[in-house]
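Example S7 (structure tokens).
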């Protein structure tokens, strides 16, 4: 187990280095200039000399590899640079937005669990009945609608027609987080309840379920104590991967509801060509995804002792 963990951690180093190089290179090849973008936003007409001085001050006049290694060296020491737009340090600014994204992720995961797991189990138990068909149709509709469309629908019905929740988020409150988290939960639940249903159906078709029924054991006991326990690995995998996608991929929803989190910060940085802030967001997503995948792999060993990691002997 220890050798497997050490091996996986060593594998993460080249992956993260490749991600840093690709993200840095793609942003430099994007065809836009952060200095010119900043000057255009101010509405001022400046000379080429001023532009060149600003580029030299930000280090944009140096060769690409020089810029990359300087940035990478600063990154390894915990310095993500200074924002081109605000002039503030990137890391403290980025960390100040994390609580909002973490709250949105936690509430979304909770709603996803509440919606997808019970409905997935119910659809499996009521296979090919009206309840199953209804749940599958709702799942299909949820999968078909993109997040921004679901967000606009919820905003229209629960903020405009029925002013229950605010249109624009106002602080880290339950009312403000309700609609953004529900938007994310609907999309995830529509996808995951079908997978929960498939996993439960697969277990229900196995011989031990038939044997339990033949011995007179109540179906509810078999369902909760045996079937769901066997499906735990699948359900846990879905939830952990959801955490990674939520922590790194809530930019659209955060922007629609003006939720002051990491995603909205990234969208604003992209619009303003704020390279240091964009790079911080890319590194955040990369670290989150590789760490979540690693934790998910390691958790299999504890959820199901039959699973062997890294060629472990039985």
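Recovered sequence:
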């Amino acid at each position: 187990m220890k050798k497997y963990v050490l091996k996986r951690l060593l594998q993460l180093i080249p992956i993260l280095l490749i991600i840093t190089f690709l993200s840095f290179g793609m942003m430099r090849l994007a065809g836009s200039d952060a200095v010119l973008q900043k000057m255009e936003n101010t509405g001022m007409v400046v000379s080429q000399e001023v532009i060149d001085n600003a580029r030299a001050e930000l280090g944009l006049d140096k060769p690409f590899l020089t810029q990359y290694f300087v940035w990478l060296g600063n990154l390894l020491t915990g310095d993500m640079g200074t924002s081109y737009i605000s002039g503030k340090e990137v890391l403290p600014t980025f960390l100040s937005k994390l609580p909002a994204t973490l709250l949105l992720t936690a509430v979304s995961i909770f709603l996803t669990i509440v919606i997808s797991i019970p409905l997935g189990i119910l659809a499996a138990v009521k296979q090919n009945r009206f309840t199953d068909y209804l749940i599958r149709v709702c799942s299909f509709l949820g999968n078909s609608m993109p997040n921004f469309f679901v967000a606009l629908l919820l905003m229209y019905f629960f903020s405009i027609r029925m002013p229950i929740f605010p249109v624009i988020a106002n602080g880290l409150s339950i009312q403000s987080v309700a609609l953004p988290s529900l938007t994310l939960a609907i999309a995830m639940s529509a996808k995951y309840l079908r997978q929960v249903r498939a996993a439960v159906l697969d277990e229900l078709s196995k011989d031990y379920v038939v044997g339990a029924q033949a011995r007179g054991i109540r179906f509810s006991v078999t369902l909760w104590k045996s079937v769901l326990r066997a499906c735990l690995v699948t359900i846990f995998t879905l939830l952990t991967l959801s955490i990674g996608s939520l922590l790194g991929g809530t930019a659209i929803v955060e922007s629609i509801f003006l939720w002051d989190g990491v995603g909205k910060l990234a969208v604003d940085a992209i619009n303003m060509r704020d390279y240091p802030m964009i790079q911080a967001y890319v590194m955040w997503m990369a670290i989150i995804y590789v760490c979540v995948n690693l934790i998910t792999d390691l958790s299999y060993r504890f959820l199901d002792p039959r699973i062997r990691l890294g060629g472990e002997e039985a």
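Notes on this example. Residues 90-125 form the longest helix (36 residues).
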